[in-house]
Write a structure and sequence with these properties.
alpha+beta
């Protein structure tokens, strides 16, 4: 029978104790690392998409109202001068047509626009040719128009002081006249922006200076310097 003698070494016990503690610490560190990785994964996890909410009726109505207001502002700034130019051109074209009809009956062009609606005004002093035309008058050729003290038609819809008068000038190559006189209507005190729009529509050009009686029925003279008002003319006819 053999008896083995085992010797207990304090140093060995200490070594075993340290080894056990080291393993325990490693295990704790591994657990902490695992927990940290899991937490990091949770923190970097892509957020879930939120359910999108549709617009409410009030929000839709508010958006429509805002767009409508913006449209009105844009349209008013864009079409204000344009609409006034269209109206002025329409008025002058109507007057021109009426004067040409009256000329056929009266034997000449009246120098006073009220002759178009008032027979009593068709006297020698109100006709360019100086011939009385009350007997041959077959109007009215146009309905009565508002006039100023000089008997010029007022067009306050264009500008407060805007008026339309009838004029004539000697025929020449510059105004396309083939006979003695060129008769035309003149709108005075017209704001420059309206003049530009007027020429665009009447002469189909953006350059006012390019519109002449030699190449069309309209022409204009814008105001210069501090004057922002000018004139526009519409040819009626050229005649002896």
């Amino acid at each position: 029978m053999f008896i083995h003698n085992f010797h207990f070494s304090p140093q060995g016990a200490t070594t075993m104790k340290l080894s056990t503690q080291t393993q325990s610490k490693k295990s704790q560190d591994q657990n902490k690392e695992t927990e940290g990785t899991a937490a990091a994964d949770r923190s970097y996890r892509a957020p879930q998409k939120r359910k999108q909410r549709g617009f409410s009726l009030i929000e839709i109505m508010a958006g429509i109202a805002i767009m409508a207001i913006m449209s009105l502002i844009l349209m008013s700034s864009f079409s204000g001068d344009s609409s006034k130019a269209v109206r002025l051109l329409g008025d002058m074209t109507t007057l021109s047509d009426s004067l040409n009809r009256a000329k056929m009956d009266l034997g000449g062009v009246p120098s006073r626009l009220s002759v178009l609606w008032n027979r009593a005004d068709a006297t020698t002093g109100n006709m360019f040719n100086g011939i009385a035309a009350t007997n041959s008058w077959s109007g009215p050729y146009i309905e009565r128009q508002p006039v100023d003290a000089s008997n010029n038609i007022t067009v306050s819809a264009v500008a407060d002081a805007s008026t339309i008068s009838i004029n004539r000038e000697a025929a020449s190559a510059a105004n396309g006249g083939n006979y003695t006189w060129v008769y035309f209507l003149r709108a005075s005190n017209v704001p420059n922006p309206i003049i530009t729009e007027f020429i665009k529509k009447c002469a189909n050009t953006d350059v006012v200076a390019n519109a002449t009686f030699a190449n069309g029925k309209c022409r204009a003279t814008p105001g210069t310097g501090a004057t922002e008002f000018g004139t526009v003319d519409v040819k009626i006819t050229d005649s002896r």
